[in-house]
């Protein structure tokens, strides 16, 4: 799959901009702060309904406007699809597929697939667990769009359950609240079990590709791995202790045990865990067990990547995670999915020469690669392709080639 046309209206710094793309490599060159990343952000938003830079939609609207519009024409084999996404400041976002009647924004998920590399990816290793959970869930939804509803349902139930737990801290918790909490426990257990089951399966798909990608980017002296850490498993441990890194082999075995459980089994385990933690949850006013508190521990050699990896190793791990997601999508494409568009947003300026060349060699064979850079010198020779000059407010066709 590749992006043939992109049009933005009132998105970020652009009142209106229209671009045409081709298969293969396209490099967008322009000074920092001129709007290159805004273009890549729009493509990524079309794929995931979220930005890799901000957590809300408001900054995506050009200042003083009430809505932004992203239009894209995507080509897959002999078939083309036109997507439109309307981002609204005061009401729900809407989408269109081939100029049909408006649909919910999430109904367009899975049509445009991207893997986006960006300097913000350092948070995948250095940041808090929410960054790694988001990485998993975005990939999960790209592969199986139905899980967008799974995550939405879980977030809705979590919000309601937390509101009820907070009432316990204010002394307003009654016998009637207790019965209501039992009901929310059942809803959250079911939604949480579906999300956990899907995440565990996805991590197992990622792990071999993560090891392969890290070996491709480095000298192979260390092996990369990813271990899913579930709060449910902590509650299931007989001694009640949270697994530490020193117990990593045992932790791997425990995660495999969780994977052997069905969604129904996981649901029952969550119900039991909620009952066991109820007193602490009422004291603190928050849900202490569930996918919203899980983590993915990234391992490099025999130590956690977070806190132990060098700067270069951290970058290699981040790039390897993105490459692993790309390889997982390629696996999916072989069974009827679409190969993703690769987006490298100002990444090469952050890498040393060796990593630049290795990354370029790996991605150069993709159906479409979109790259941004401040200067041509940042782009390795392996990514020879079309050059597009980005200027304030749009594209300078006279300097593009």
Descriptive report:
By secondary structure, the chain is of the alpha/beta class. The protein folds into 2 domains: about 180 residues, P-loop containing nucleotide triphosphate hydrolases (Rossmann fold, 3-Layer(aba) Sandwich), CATH 3.40.50; about 210 residues, Glutathione S-transferase Yfyf (Class Pi), Chain A, domain 2. Helices cover about 45% and strands about 20% of the residues. The strands form 3 sheets. It has a 6-stranded antiparallel beta sheet, with helices on one face. The protein has a 6-stranded mixed beta sheet with strand order 8-12-13-3-14-15, sandwiched between helices. A 3-stranded antiparallel beta sheet has the order 9-10-11. The radius of gyration is 22 Å and the shape is globular. The relative contact order is 0.16.
Topology:
Layout: E1 2-11, E2 14-20, E3 24-29, H1 36-48, E4 67-76, E5 79-88, E6 94-97, E7 103-104, E8 114-117, H2 123-126, H3 129-143, H4 147-169, H5 175-217, E9 224-229, H6 231-236, H7 248-259, H8 263-284, E10 295-300, E11 303-304, H9 311-333, E12 341-345, H10 353-363, E13 368-373, E14 386-391, E15 394-396
Helix pairs in contact: 4-5, 4-8, 5-8, 5-9
Short summary:
The chain is 43% helix and 22% strand.
Report strand %.
15-25%
Which segments are poorly predicted (pLDDT under 50) over 5 or more consecutive residues?
Answer: 238-256
Helix/strand-derived category reads alpha/beta
Q: Describe the strand arrangement of the main beta sheet, using strand numbers.
A: 2-1-4-5-6-7
Instruction: Please tally the β strands and state the result.
Output: 15
**Domain tally:** 2
- Proportion of helical residues: 40-55%
Largest sheet: 6 strands, antiparallel
* CATH 2nd-level architecture of the largest domain: Up-down Bundle
Order of helices and strands: EEEHEEEEEHHHHEHHHEEHEHEEE
- The averaged pLDDT comes out at 91
Q: What would you give as the CATH superfamily of the largest domain?
A: RecF/RecN/SMC, N-terminal domain
């Amino acid at each position: 799959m590749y992006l043939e046309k992109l049009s933005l209206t009132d998105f970020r710094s652009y009142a209106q901009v229209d671009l045409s793309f081709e298969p293969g490599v396209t490099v967008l060159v322009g000074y920092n702060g001129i709007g290159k990343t805004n273009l890549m952000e729009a493509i990524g938003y079309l794929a995931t309904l979220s930005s890799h830079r901000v957590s809300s939609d408001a900054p995506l609207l050009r200042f003083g406007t009430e809505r932004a519009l992203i239009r894209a024409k995507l080509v897959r084999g002999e078939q083309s699809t036109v997507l439109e996404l309307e981002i609204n400041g005061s009401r729900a976002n809407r989408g269109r597929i081939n100029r049909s009647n408006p649909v919910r924004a999430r109904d367009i998920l899975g049509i445009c697939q991207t893997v986006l590399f960006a300097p913000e990816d350092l948070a995948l290793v250095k940041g808090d667990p929410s960054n790694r959970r988001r990485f998993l869930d975005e990939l999960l939804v790209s592969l199986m769009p139905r899980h967008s509803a799974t995550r939405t349902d879980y977030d809705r139930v979590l919000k309601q359950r937390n509101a009820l737990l907070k009432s316990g801290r204010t002394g307003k918790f009654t016998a009637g609240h207790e019965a209501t909490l039992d009901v929310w426990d059942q809803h959250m257990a079911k939604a949480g079990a579906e999300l956990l089951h899907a995440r565990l399966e996805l991590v197992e798909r990622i792990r071999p590709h993560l090891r392969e990608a890290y070996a491709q980017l480095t000298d192979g002296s260390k092996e990369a791995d990813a271990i899913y850490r579930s709060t449910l498993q902590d509650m299931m441990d007989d001694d009640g202790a949270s697994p530490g890194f020193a117990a990593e082999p045992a932790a791997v075995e425990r995660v495999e045990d969780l994977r052997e459980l069905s969604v129904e089994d996981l649901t029952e385990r969550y119900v039991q865990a909620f009952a066991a933690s109820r007193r602490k949850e009422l004291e603190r006013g928050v849900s202490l067990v569930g996918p919203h508190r899980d983590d993915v521990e990234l391992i490099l050699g025999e130590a956690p990547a977070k806190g132990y990896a060098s700067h270069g190793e951290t970058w290699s791990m981040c790039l390897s995670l993105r490459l692993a997601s790309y390889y997982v999508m390629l696996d999916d494409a072989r069974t009827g999915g679409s190969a993703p568009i690769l987006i490298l947003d100002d990444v090469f300026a952050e890498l040393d020469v060796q990593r630049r060349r290795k990354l370029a060699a790996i991605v150069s064979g993709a159906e479409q690669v979109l790259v941004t850079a401040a200067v041509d010198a940042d782009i390795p020779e392996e990514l020879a392709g079309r050059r597009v000059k980005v200027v304030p407010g749009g594209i300078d066709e006279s300097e593009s080639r």
